[in-house]
């Protein structure tokens, strides 16, 4: 009972006691340090901790006004270190992960190079005018022109030059001349691996790749890539193309002054390409050229004396240039001819593959004879035509071709006034111009070979140059069955064949009819031989089937339209005693250094028995000796040939040959804006234009030059 009464009192007393102890304990705890080494400052921070600590004291506590928003030095340093560290890590990661990409496909494009028969460069073409060359072919002075102008520290820098970039920026900001802030390595990378966009990302990538390129490639390799990839204007990519476009020489022949201009042209190619004609462009180019030479002196690659000599020689003005002038004179026609031949003999050579370039096409064209043919045309035109005072002389066209009878090599062509004058159709390789009486020797050859049906129902009889036919004007023509040939245009319904004159020749020999170009005997002879036999002989001589006219009386006196090249080839067969060597223009084609098959020279084949071919030649000698081609006697050596004129005077021809050379010349009128043959009446002040006139004069002038030094 008493124990029971004490328990509540103990609890009550204990409660007060515990509460007292807690109170004392809390007070003691507030006065007791937190642990060893704990300072009073830490004890004072405790209330702030209860309010929550801040990782970045910004805006700054305990500050008022603007000072609250100004970061402390420690904060600025921390931000800088953080930024520097992140940037370094990012650049390091980018450098480690970036790879040198494959070259841009466009930088792999080259042009095609065409060569004369002697191996010299005839022309280049392609969608990109570039020929990659080893840096060893670039003269040392020219290399230093570019290094002085673009990157004097090229051989010592790692591929980038931060100081150079800043220096260029400050120089331009002060109003100085334009300077490149990129190293040669950077420009090589931009040209070859990247694009030309002006973005920070592209520039950063350029810097990273340039650093890797600088470590992976030798300086000479980089310089070579740079010089081959620069754009110089005038459609020239690379220094080799630039040397030819601006100065007409291979890069090996450039001097330091010319190299200084090209180093300047890289800076503003669209402007400096006109330094030949535009005063503003020339003035700026001259100033930049002078600056490059001064830089050469400054870096010790030119002496002041050498610099003075170049200054005394004057600014190296580039040669004249206009868009499309890369194929001057006859060059365009020669390139067209070679391209067509190459594509016809190798199906892998397409317009697309040619546009990508890399082909080296070796031609049969003779430089001297091509020039001689162009001179002959120019001289005769100047002497005989007066387009300024005779309107009929303005649209006169000339086409010509010269072929080696033994091999079929096309040695020269004259295709027209040239691409630079807007004349793109090759008059030497065109069809559509009737050959007139130059077709008669083919009819004679067919008659000598196949004989002729002189009487209906009888077997074909032998024909010789002495065989006689009626040469009178207006006679009626019979076919092999003895029937008169009809003509819907004649009031009688029958064909009455006419000559150029109304002279009554009576029965004359085929030789005489050839010499005087009398039509009626050869029309009747053709009917007697038969159209199939004449066509067979024409094709055997190399005339293409699609150029031969349909059967008619006019077929035998030249309504067919073979090209000048094919006519020269056909007469070459007579010159070679019946051996036909098909005309060809390409001897070899290589692509990226590898020779392509299919360009072996065509082997000569027997087209006519030698006796027949020589008989024709003997008759054609008489044409020059005492016939319509007497102007060709001025050649001064034995030759054979035939004049040709169409009935309506739409064309005039002369095709002639010696043993060494066969050449055809055609004259016609055609307005380029309205491609249709017009009459030659009145041309050169002549009432009638015959093949024995202007075409024979051109032939004789050319052959005189082309055969110089060759034996009779």
Automatic annotation (TrEMBL):
Residues 120-296 form the Glycosyl transferase family domain. Keywords: Carboxypeptidase, Cell shape, Cell wall biogenesis/degradation, Glycosyltransferase, Hydrolase, Membrane, Multifunctional enzyme, Peptidoglycan synthesis, Protease, Transferase, Transmembrane, Transmembrane helix. Residues 45-60 have a biased composition (Basic and acidic residues). It catalyses: [GlcNAc-(1->4)-Mur2Ac(oyl-L-Ala-gamma-D-Glu-L-Lys-D-Ala-D-Ala)](n)-di-trans,octa-cis-undecaprenyl diphosphate + beta-D-GlcNAc-(1->4)-Mur2Ac(oyl-L-Ala-gamma-D-Glu-L-Lys-D-Ala-D-Ala)-di-trans,octa-cis-undecaprenyl diphosphate = [GlcNAc-(1->4)-Mur2Ac(oyl-L-Ala-gamma-D-Glu-L-Lys-D-Ala-D-Ala)](n+1)-di-trans,octa-cis-undecaprenyl diphosphate + di-trans,octa-cis-undecaprenyl diphosphate + H(+); Preferential cleavage: (Ac)2-L-Lys-D-Ala-|-D-Ala. Also transpeptidation of peptidyl-alanyl moieties that are N-acyl substituents of D-alanine. Residues 479-661 form the Penicillin-binding protein transpeptidase domain. The chain crosses the membrane at residues 76-96. Pfam families: Transgly, Transpeptidase. GO terms for molecular function: penicillin binding; peptidoglycan glycosyltransferase activity; serine-type D-Ala-D-Ala carboxypeptidase activity. GO terms for biological process: cell wall organization; peptidoglycan biosynthetic process; proteolysis; regulation of cell shape. GO terms for cellular component: outer membrane-bounded periplasmic space. It comes from the Bacteria. Residues 1-61 are annotated as: Disordered. The keyword Flavoprotein does not apply. The keyword Cell inner membrane does not apply. In the C-terminal section; belongs to the transpeptidase family. This is Penicillin-binding protein. It comes from Streptomyces sioyaensis.
């Amino acid at each position: 009972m008493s124990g029971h009464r004490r328990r509540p009192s103990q609890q009550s007393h204990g409660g007060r006691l515990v509460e007292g102890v807690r109170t004392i304990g809390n007070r003691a705890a507030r006065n007791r340090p937190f642990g060893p080494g704990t300072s009073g400052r830490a004890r004072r921070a405790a209330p702030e901790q209860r309010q929550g600590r801040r990782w970045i004291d910004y805006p700054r506590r305990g500050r008022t006004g603007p000072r609250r928003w100004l970061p402390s030095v420690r904060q600025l340093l921390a931000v800088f270190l953080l930024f520097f560290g992140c940037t370094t890590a990012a650049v390091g990661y980018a450098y480690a992960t970036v790879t040198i990409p494959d070259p841009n496909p466009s930088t792999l494009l080259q042009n095609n190079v065409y060569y004369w028969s002697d191996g010299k460069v005839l022309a280049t073409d392609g969608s990109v005018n570039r020929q990659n060359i080893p840096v060893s072919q670039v003269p040392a002075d020219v290399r230093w022109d570019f290094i002085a102008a673009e990157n004097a520290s090229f051989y010592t820098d790692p591929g980038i030059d931060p100081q150079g970039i800043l220096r260029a920026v400050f120089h331009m900001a002060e109003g100085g001349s334009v300077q490149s802030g990129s190293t040669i390595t950077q420009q090589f990378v931009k040209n070859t691996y990247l694009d030309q966009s002006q973005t920070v990302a592209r520039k950063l990538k350029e810097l990273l790749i340039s650093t890797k390129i600088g470590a992976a490639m030798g300086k000479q390799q980089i310089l070579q890539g740079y010089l081959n990839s620069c754009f110089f204007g005038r459609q020239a990519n690379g220094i080799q193309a630039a040397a030819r476009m601006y100065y007409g020489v291979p890069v090996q022949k450039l001097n330091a002054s010319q190299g200084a201009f090209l180093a300047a042209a890289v800076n503003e190619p669209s402007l400096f390409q006109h330094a030949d004609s535009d005063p503003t462009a020339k003035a700026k180019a001259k100033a930049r050229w002078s600056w490059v030479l001064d830089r050469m002196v400054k870096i010790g690659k030119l002496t002041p004396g050498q610099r003075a000599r170049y200054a005394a020689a004057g600014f190296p003005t580039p040669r004249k240039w206009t868009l499309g002038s890369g194929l001057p004179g006859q060059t365009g026609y020669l390139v067209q001819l070679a391209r067509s031949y190459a594509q016809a003999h190798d199906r892998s050579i397409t317009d697309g593959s040619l546009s990508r370039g890399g082909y080296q096409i070796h031609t049969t064209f003779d430089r001297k004879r091509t020039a001689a043919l162009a001179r002959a045309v120019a001289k005769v035109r100047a002497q005989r035509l007066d387009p300024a005072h005779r309107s009929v002389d303005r649209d006169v066209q000339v086409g010509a071709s010269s072929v080696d009878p033994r091999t079929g090599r096309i040695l020269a062509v004259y295709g027209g006034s040239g691409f630079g004058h807007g004349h793109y159709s090759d008059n030497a390789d065109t069809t559509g111009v009737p050959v007139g009486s130059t077709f008669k020797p083919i009819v004679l050859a067919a008659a000598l070979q196949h004989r002729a049906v002189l009487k209906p129902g009888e077997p074909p009889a032998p024909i010789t140059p002495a065989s006689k036919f009626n040469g009178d004007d207006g006679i009626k023509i019979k076919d092999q069955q003895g029937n008169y040939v009809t003509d819907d245009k004649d009031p009688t319904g029958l064909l009455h064949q006419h000559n150029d004159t109304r002279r009554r020749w009576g029965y004359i020999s085929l030789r005489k009819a050839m010499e005087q170009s009398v039509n009626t005997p050869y029309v009747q002879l053709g009917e007697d031989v038969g159209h199939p036999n004449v066509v067979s002989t024409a094709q055997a001589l190399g005339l293409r089937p699609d150029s031969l006219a349909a059967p008619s009386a006019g077929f035998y006196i030249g309504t067919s339209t073979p090209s000048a090249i094919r006519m020269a080839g056909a007469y070459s067969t007579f010159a070679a005693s019946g051996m036909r060597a098909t005309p060809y223009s390409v001897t070899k084609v290589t692509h990226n250094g590898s020779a392509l098959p299919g360009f072996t020279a065509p082997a000569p084949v027997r087209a006519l028995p030698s006796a027949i071919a020589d008989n024709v030649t003997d008759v054609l000698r008489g044409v020059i000796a005492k016939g319509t081609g007497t102007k060709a006697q001025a050649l001064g050596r034995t030759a054979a040939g035939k004049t040709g004129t169409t009935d309506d005077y739409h064309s005039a021809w002369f095709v002639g040959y010696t043993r060494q050379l066969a050449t055809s010349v055609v004259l016609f009128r055609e307005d380029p804006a309205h491609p249709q043959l017009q009459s030659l009446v009145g041309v050169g002040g002549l009432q009638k234009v015959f093949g024995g006139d202007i075409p024979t004069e051109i032939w004789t002038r050319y052959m005189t030059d082309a055969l110089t030094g060759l034996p009779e």
